[in-house]
Amino acid sequence: MSHEHNHNTEAIGDKRLIAAIGVNAALTLAQIVGGILSGSLSLIADALHNLSDAASLVIALIARKIGRRPPDAFKTFGYRRSETIAALINLVTLIIVGLYLIYEAIGRLFSPQPIEGWTVVVVAGIALVVDIVTAFLTYTMSKNSMNIKAAFLHNVSDALASVGVVIAGTLILLYGWYWADTVLTLMIAGYVLWQGFSMLPKTIHLLMEGAPEGVSVADIINVMEQVNDVEGVHHVHVWEIAEHTIALEAHVVIKKASLPGIERVKTDLKRVLHEQFKISHSTLEMELDGSVCLDTKQTDNHCSEA
C-alpha cells in the first residue's frame, strides 16, 4: 500500500512538472516575441531566465525518472545522484545566461534603442501570472528535493523580475526613461549570477563526496566511542550517495569480546549512527586491540566488515 502511494505521489509530481514546463515554454516564446516587437532587452532577459527555468524543470524531470531506477551491476548505489548532476548542468547554464545578459546590456548602453512600453508591461504582466502558477505547481515537491527547490526559487525570482519589468515599462511610458530597461537587465543578470554561484559550491561538494552539511566527523567519532565496548574509531569517511542518503565507512577498535558481542556492538553503532546523524548505509570494520581484526569464522588476524 505504501509503495503504491509513493508511486502515485511520484506520478502526480511528474504531471505537475510537465504542466510547469508547458506554461514556461509558452511564456518564454511570448516574452521573446514581445521583447523583439517592443525592443525591450529586459523582457528578452526575463525570457532567457525563464527559458533556463523551463530547461531546469526538463532536466529535473528526466533526472527524477532516471533516479528511480534500482541499483544494478553497473551502478551498485543506484542512479539517484543523477539529480545532482542535473543540478550542476542547470547551474552552469544559469551562469552562462547571466554572463550573456550582461554582455547584451553593456552593448545596449552604447547603442540605445526605442522601446514600446505597453508591450513590455502587458507581456511582463502575463509572465508574472505564469510564474506564480509555476511556483504553485512546484511548491509541495520543493520541500524534499534540492533540484525542485532550486526550480521553485527560480520561479519566485522570475516573478520578482517580472514585477521589475512592469516597473521599467511603466517608467518608459510615463517618463521615457529607456535607460531603466538596461539597468533592470543588469539587475536581473546580477541576481541570476548570484543565484548560480551561491548554489554551485554545494552541488560540487556533493559530487566530490564531501561530508554532508551539518555533519561533523569529530562528532560522529565522539558519539561512536560512547557505545559500550568501543575503545576507539579511526579511518572515518562520510559522504552523501545522493540527496538525503548518507553513507559511512569506519574502523572500530573494540575490547576483546565473543562473536555475539561483536555483532551487538555493530548493531548498537548502526542504530546510533542512524538516529543521531541519519546515516542509512554504514560499513564498519571491527578491530581488536588496535592491531588485529576479528572474522566471524576465525578469531585470529582476520577482518570482519558489516
Can you characterise this structure?
The radius of gyration is 26 Å and the shape is elongated. A hairpin with a 3-residue loop joins strand 3 (279-288) and strand 4. Mean pLDDT is 77; it is low at 1-8 and 290-306. The protein has 306 residues and is α+β, with helices and mostly antiparallel strands. The two termini are 31 Å apart. Strands 1, 2, 3, 4 and 5 form a five-stranded mixed beta sheet that branches. It has eight helices and five strands, in the order H-H-H-H-H-H-H-E-E-H-E-E-E. Helices cover 67% and strands 12% of the residues.
Order of helices and strands: HHHHHHHEEHEEE
Tally of individual helices: 8
Counting helices, strands and paired strands, the structural category is alpha+beta
Number of β-strand runs: 5
Q: Multimeric state of these chains? A: single chain
Range of strand content: 5-15%
As a percent range, the share of helical residues equals 55-70%
Rg: 26 Å
Largest sheet: 5 strands, mixed
Overall spatial form: elongated
N- to C-terminal separation? 31 Å
Mean pLDDT: 77
User: Runs with pLDDT <50, length 5+?
Assistant: 1-8, 290-306
InterPro entries: Cation_efflux (IPR002524), Cation_efflux_CTD (IPR027470), Cation_efflux_CTD_sf (IPR036837), Cation_efflux_TM (IPR058533), Cation_efflux_TMD_sf (IPR027469), CDF/SLC30A (IPR050681)
Organism: Stutzerimonas nitrititolerans
Keywords: Ion transport, Membrane, Transmembrane, Transmembrane helix, Transport, Zinc, Zinc transport
Membrane topology: Multi-pass membrane protein
